[in-house]
Amino acid sequence: MAEASGSQGANVFRQYVDDFLAAAAPGLEEVVNSRSFGAMLSQTAGNLVAMQRIGNEMADLALRNARIASRADVTSLHRQLARSEDKLEMVLETVERLEDELAAERARHAEQSAEQATQQSTQQSRTSGASRPARKQGE
Fold first, then answer.
1. Residue-range domain boundaries for the chain
2. Cα–Cα distance, 9 to 17 (Å, whole number)
3. pLDDT, mean of each 10-residue run, the chain (139 residues)
4. Interior angle at CA 58, CA 53 and CA 60, nearest 5
5. CA 89 to chain centre
6. DSSP labels for 15-36?
């Protein structure tokens, strides 16, 4: 029974709406066909877009004031991090190059030291052999 009265109420409401539209239709068609309606509609659409933009900016400001990172903040941090990574990569390459140069220099220095030690021992053995008196075979 409740459904019957609900559907009857819906039918009554629908009848009121249909009557209103039938009475208002000629006047509304005249308003819609005018140039001022088009201008008003475009201005309203522009205002809605502007309100949406203001709302987005307010949301960004609220996030920034709450110290929560917004999209712009995250993008900025990403750029800074990428620059830092590039600089670190350059420093690492330079350090590796310098380590290679140092290892080569140490190897060259070690070879020179070994050569000098060999030359010195050769000279010492020559000079020590010449400074010794010749032994007699009977001794």
1. 11-68
2. 12
3. 70 93 87 87 95 94 82 90 96 96 94 88 75 56
4. 95
5. 17
6. HHHHHHHHHHHHHHHHHHTSHH
